[in-house]
Amino acid sequence: MPRRHQKRRKTRTRRDTAEESDTEEMHSNCPSTLFSRGTDDSSNSSRPQSPQVNQISGRRFDPAELYPKHFTLDDIQVPWRDRVFLACPGSPRKCPDCNRHVSHTDCIVIAIDGACRNNGRYGARASVGVYHGYNNGWNESNLLPPEENQTNQVAELVACERALIDAQTIQNLWEEGAENGEDRGGKLSMVVIKSDSEYVVRGMTEWLSKWKANGWINAKGLPVTNREYFRGIECLVESLEEKQVSVKFWHVPREFNQDADQLAKSALFDD
């Protein structure tokens, strides 16, 4: 699918190739029961429920509400082949061979980041990073076009847009695969956008409803900065939700977002 400012480039990032072993494949194919813990004792299988449109606060991904205490941040995401999936909250222990929990292969994690050299100063140059998984051809490491505002915040928002456009394409491809009887056919149930940007995550899960209620005017009585990007992201989210794909935003520490960070920074280094 063509998309704005598309210039895709596959970039290898830090992942141990052992994570792609056949052993891990055997332990990473769990039907999705995510978010079912403690909500319905009458059934052992409850698929992720898509939030209603405009339930903005419900789009926040909070592992503390979903996973047992013994799960670390690294346990929650499961690298498998060239993608990253969510771990099953009901997994009691890791596989002794691959050292990973069972995952939900219909729930993907896409990490995003933005970088900007000379941010806020003359000559600023910004870039985006989108990480789908180890050596994945959808990984992106691109400069923002000159006509875009060259700021770190814009770069993070553009990265979010691109990740969601990717998710739309993935959903379409998986559905087509299911119709054609392909192995990867199926339904994408959830996409989690992982970011170390409080601006992006809180913007999409807290501030958006206030901005819309106030006519896109902020608390200082001024137009919301970058409102066109937030509007575009919301449209992409709602489009996925209409297809019963739940979209969540996950705020993580910077050190837990190194793959996307590396992709964003490498575009500046190559410039």
From TrEMBL:
Per UniProt, which keywords does this protein have?
Endonuclease, Hydrolase, Metal-binding, Nuclease
Q: Name one GO molecular function term.
A: metal ion binding
Judged by the first EC level, this protein's enzyme class is hydrolase
UniProt xrefs under Gene3D superfamilies: Ribonuclease H-like superfamily/Ribonuclease H
**Record's catalysed reaction(s):** Endonucleolytic cleavage to 5'-phosphomonoester
- Top-level taxon: Eukaryota
Q: Which GO terms describe its biological process?
A: DNA replication, removal of RNA primer
Q: Where is this region: Disordered?
A: 1-61
Q: Where is the RNase H type-1 domain?
A: 104-269
Compositional bias annotation for Basic residues? 1-13
Q: Which InterPro entries match?
A: RNase_H, RNaseH-like_sf, RNaseH_domain, RNaseH_sf
Instruction: Please name the PROSITE patterns in this protein's record.
Output: RNASE_H_1
Q: Which Pfam families match?
A: RNase_H (PF00075)
Q: What is its EC number?
A: 3.1.26.4
Q: Give me the stretches of Polar residues compositional bias.
A: 29-57
Q: Which family does it belong to?
A: Belongs to the RNase H family.
Query: What name is this protein filed under?
Result: ribonuclease H
Q: Which organism is it from?
A: Aspergillus sclerotiicarbonarius (strain CBS 121057 / IBT 28362)
Q: What is the taxonomic lineage of the source species?
A: Eukaryota, Fungi, Dikarya, Ascomycota, Pezizomycotina
